[in-house]
């Protein structure tokens, strides 16, 4: 546009044919755009949206156990089973004296060196004598 | 914070209630803005099914963000920022698929024109359909950002400053976008007067 004012108030539009023409075409464009009505929103829009929201709100544990849930079974069953399993594992781990003994990797007995064997025999003999002594002391005196 | 939101706008206050666990307030927001979001997206992507899918994603994101929501701007600014972002992404992703075919094919989505006094004749209907197709083509031919700006300005009656916030640009950039967009539309549609 060449008009230096480029304003669209009624008074100026009466005086300036250039701005009047511009305003007229702008009104035409606006009227043309008014023709374009958007279609109505689907009736099930909200239902679909709330379904998606609900889907995202599923608890994390429910999500984890879902693959193991029996079809048609109660919702609490997998949770109860998981809890029972955890209790059972806990009891098994905590039982004293039942801790499995580590099995040696090899069943072969390694022979001691001669000097170590002699020392061990001597220690055993001393212990035997010590044991005899104790037992002899423990016998009731006649 | 709630007081600040109330001063800002009622929608932001509703959103803060959603943040506090009030699901009914989300329903109020959905009821209030559902149509405008869907219609904006429809005019952006020009496909009814896609626009509804995108609108669902918009409201889903709103709901998911409730815990971290802070009313730093008008609720509708935030809402249309999400909608515009999704629309621009969808347009970018489908750039190669977008063609004239879709414009011509989805006439079934077009609303039936309501004429209060008399039923339109076949000829009037044809003229209307031709004009409508031309409008849709003219809008579709605009660059994505210009299109978003025009749709928000024309159909959502947003002010320059709000469009600027939605598009994350300056007010003068919005004026420039709108000027160029309307110039292009004038060139294509002025004869329809």
Produce the secondary structure layout.
The complex is a heterodimer of chains A (142) and B (193).
Chain A lengths: L9 H6 L1 H18 L10 H12 L3 H6 L10 H19 L19 H25 L4
Chain B lengths: L1 H7 L1 H10 L3 H23 L2 H17 L10 H19 L6 H6 L16 H19 L3 H11 L5 H8 L3 H19 L4
Order of helices and strands of chain B: HHHHHHHHHH
Specify Rg of chain A, calculated over alpha carbons.
48 Å
Identify the CATH homologous superfamily of the largest domain in chain B. Answer: RNA polymerase sigma factor, region 2, helix turn helix motif
Can you name the CATH architecture of the largest domain in chain B?
Orthogonal Bundle
Structural account:
The complex is a heterodimer of chains A (142) and B (193). Chain A is built from 6 helices and no strands. Residues 103-107 and 138-142 of chain A have low confidence and may be disordered. Helix content of chain A is 61%, strand content 0%. Chain A has 142 residues and is mainly alpha-helical. Among the domains of chain A are: 1-37; 45-94, no CATH class. Chain B is mainly alpha-helical and 193 residues long. Chain B has 2 domains: 1-99, Rna Polymerase Sigma Factor, Chain: A, CATH 1.10.1740.10; 120-193, Orthogonal Bundle (Arc Repressor Mutant, subunit A), CATH 1.10.10. Chain B has helices at 2-8, 10-19, 23-45, 48-64, 75-93, 100-105, 122-140, 144-154, 160-167, 171-189. Chain B is globular. Chain B starts with a helix and ends with a helix. Classes of the chains: A mainly alpha (142), B mainly alpha (193). The interface between A and B is medium-sized, with 25 and 37 residues.
Keyphrases for this structure?
heterodimer, A: about 140 residues, mainly alpha, 6 helices, about 0% strand, B: about 190 residues, Rna Polymerase Sigma Factor, Chain: A, Arc Repressor Mutant, subunit A, 2 domains, 10 helices
